[in-house]
Specification:
By secondary structure, the protein is of the alpha+beta class. The chain has 19 helices and 26 strands. Helix 13 crosses helix 14 and helix 13 runs parallel beside helix 15.
């Protein structure tokens, strides 16, 4: 019963529940929400008629106006800045709205956009000084606060009488400030629209990811190619526009240009943003946090007002809350890396079948032998981490190096070698196309192409983002292995969307469906994900029908088949569902079957740990990486199988003396060439009775 409950708990809960339910992100949102619930309860007890329709409508109107400014403040805070001039911008845009409507008699459809444009211009002043001239945000906006306030006082003194004596007769203008739709104020509907749009921008659009990246580390964002200055500038412009929108609603509702409008609003808005959970350090925040913070501050302010507290007392309380929230925020930032390292890993329940018998002389398909013990070695000590190997039409041998190079060994003796191309990242899977271009999956970089003249080109490094993903999974983190269809489409595996290449053990610890298969189509240069939720997908090989691929799931210890064309398009079927080890690359054999490398072998202790997610989580929290429980990666194995899932032959190197952790193999003219990401050599095994004329390049592209 306990095991059943554990399996249900970890296997069927969505990963964003399991991985984030106790995480920093969930806690940051939960605490303000709980605090908001307490404030609402207390307000209902202390304020008379708090729950009446009229009182709630008034609260929503105030929340909408202030909330728009909080959204603007939150935007500049997330990008790593601050705007103390929001109160003055609010007062000025309120004045401009009244000037356009009351004095100049402009129509509403012209006055409102003009007011928003004025807000954008005010924000652009801050944005240009901070974004392009790189002035300090705090000091700059403090100065513009004084300047904008002075301009407001001068203009309002000249036009206050004209504004008060020329009330407009416009039902549209009145509806903006005091109207309602379906029982909710107009400003509440507008705020909801802006909030949804802001949420989509920050979480689903590239500009939002850029804003988060700049706030997290401006230098790293710049080095990553993000237009930092322009993005910061536009964030301040957006803050000005939102302040202008709030000014329009306020002007329509109260029609006043009093001297006290906007005074102290920067404290109120900043308090709302910080108490909601938007970080003063930048790079962390959301629309939801801004919304919760707005309601908290508004209810506290209204509660104090109903208790006849003076304006000075209210501002003092807000300042105290701001200091407390800032202290908590700074302390959180100081320790966030240590906290994240404890809660980020989220193992799941993962049950494998009983491992097949691999005993020596057992007579089964996986019976142990030492056929790979005596192999010829190529490049011993001259190459590091040849994860994949491949041969061209001239029998030259290619392999990747951990130094970011593609090394070419020249036939026939493979003694002479050269750096064929320098890419800069760890080369993984490789494949030649009809034009003899070499396509390579690069860990952390994506899919690249090397032309025969050694020119290196980036093919793709991103794909479509999953709408149900918590983190941004559009960037290719760990492109692994690939193969090319007859029409030129390239199918390649991405082992994990959560972790970088050097963090692959953490993905194995989780055993979740973090991987996917991606297709790049040269016909329209598009990249799309065709299969998701795979447990570290690895080897890819086009099947004999030309309409499907065989792929390996490393942590699933299985081989599956996916149809990308034909009558079974979109279907996935199991080919081998219970291997004794962890599969890696798959390639063609001369007899029409397939070779498979196993990167490591299963053990009873590790299989048991896979059924104990709590144990694995505690292990990750309490032990350093080099003391974690790992799969056995000391025994090398290559096997041959057919499309029916029958294992036809196995080749072992017991003890891994020549080839531990075999990650790839290629059959070529009667020999099997072996690669391994932890090796410093390439092995060559002579296949008894194999076709000595077989070349994968000629077989695949003979029509060329």
């Amino acid at each position: 019963m306990t095991e059943t409950l554990t399996r249900l708990r970890y296997r069927y809960w969505p990963d964003h529940w399991v991985g984030e339910i106790l995480s920093k992100r969930w806690t940051e949102t939960a605490i303000p929400v709980l605090l908001l619930g307490v404030v609402v309860f207390v307000s209902g007890r202390l304020i008379g008629n708090f729950y009446t329709a009229g009182a709630l409508a008034d609260t929503l109107r105030q929340a909408g106006e202030i909330g728009l400014i909080v959204l603007g403040m939150g935007l500049v805070m997330i990008v790593g800045g601050i705007d103390l001039s929001v109160g003055s911008m609010f007062a000025l845009t309120n004045f401009f709205a009244l000037l356009f409507i009351h004095v100049l008699k402009w129509p509403v459809l012209l006055a409102v956009p003009a007011t928003l444009l004025c807000g954008a211009a005010l924000g652009a002043v801050n944005g240009y000084l901070i974004g392009y001239l790189r002035l300090r945000a705090f000091l700059t906006t403090l100065i513009t606060l004084i300047i904008f306030r002075s301009v407001y006082e001068i203009l309002s003194g000249q036009y206050s009488t004209a504004i008060a004596g020329n009330l407009p007769d416009s039902e549209v203008w009145d509806f903006i400030g005091s109207g309602a739709f379906l029982g909710l104020p107009t400003v509440a509907w507008f705020y909801a629209f802006v909030a949804v749009a802001g949420h989509i921008m920050l979480t689903r659009l590239r500009v939002g990811w850029h804003i988060m990246a700049i706030g997290g580390s401006r230098r790293s964002a710049y080095n990553g190619g993000i237009a930092v200055r322009r993005t910061v500038f536009l964030c301040y412009v957006g803050c000005g526009v939102l302040s202008g929108a709030a000014g329009c609603f306020f002007a329509s509702r109260l029609a006043t240009a009093g001297a006290d409008i906007g005074i102290g609003m920067e404290v109120l808005v900043l308090t709302a943003a910080v108490i909601g959970g938007i970080s003063l350090g930048g790079g962390r925040g959301s629309v939801t946090k801004a919304m919760v913070g707005t309601l908290l501050v508004l209810l506290i302010t209204n509660g104090l007002t109903s208790m006849s507290a003076s304006g000075g007392v209210i501002r003092m309380v807000l300042a105290g809350i701001l200091i407390l929230a800032a202290v908590i925020d700074v302390r959180w930032l100081k320790n966030r890396q240590r906290i994240i390292s404890k809660v980020y890993v989220s193992p799941t329940y993962h049950r494998l079948g009983v491992s097949p018998d691999c005993s020596m002389g057992g007579g089964g398909a996986f019976a142990l032998n030492n056929k790979l013990r005596d192999v010829t070695l190529i490049g011993l000590g001259r190459i590091e981490s040849p994860e994949d190997v491949i041969l061209d039409r001239d029998d030259n041998l290619y392999a990747g190096s951990r130094h970011g190079d593609i090394i070419r060994f020249f036939a026939p003796d493979y003694e002479r070698m050269e750096v064929f191309a320098h890419i800069g990242g760890q080369p993984l899977g490789m494949a030649f196309d009809r034009e003899h271009n070499l396509y390579v999956c690069i860990g952390g970089m994506g899919l690249y192409r090397i032309k025969p003249d050694k020119t290196v080109e980036r093919v793709t490094d991103e794909t479509n983002r999953s709408w149900r993903s918590i983190n941004d999974d559009s960037r290719l983190r760990l492109a692994d292995d690939l193969d090319i269809a007859d029409d030129g489409r390239i199918f390649f595996s991405e082992a994990t969307v959560r972790y970088e290449m050097d963090e692959w053990p953490v993905d194995g610890l989780e055993a979740r469906g973090n991987g996917r298969i991606v297709c790049w189509d040269p016909r329209d240069n598009s990249t799309r994900t065709v299969l998701r939720d795979l447990k570290f997908p690895n080897g890819i090989c086009i099947a004999s029908d030309g309409q499907s691929i065989l792929f390996a799931e490393t942590w699933g210890c299985c081989i599956k088949r996916y149809w990308f064309d034909g009558p079974k398009k979109g279907c996935v079927e199991s080919v081998i569902d219970n291997l004794p080890g962890y599969p890696d690359n798959i390639n063609l054999a001369s007899d029409g079957n397939y070779w498979l490398a196993m990167v490591g072998m299963r053990s009873p202790s590790y299989d048991l740990a896979m059924r104990m997610p709590g144990f694995r989580k505690r292990m990750a929290q309490r032990l350093p990486l080099d003391e974690w429980l790992f799969p056995n990666i000391n025994t090398g194995c290559v096997l041959k199988f057919n499309e029916a899932g029958e294992v036809l032959e196995t080749l072992w190197d017991l003890g891994g003396e020549n080839h531990p952790m075999i990650t790839s193999m290629r059959e070529h003219k009667g020999h099997l060439y072996l690669g391994g990401i932890s090796n410093n050599r390439i092995g060559v095994y002579k296949l008894p009775g194999a076709d000595a004329t077989f070349s994968q390049y000629e077989r695949r592209w003979r029509a060329a």
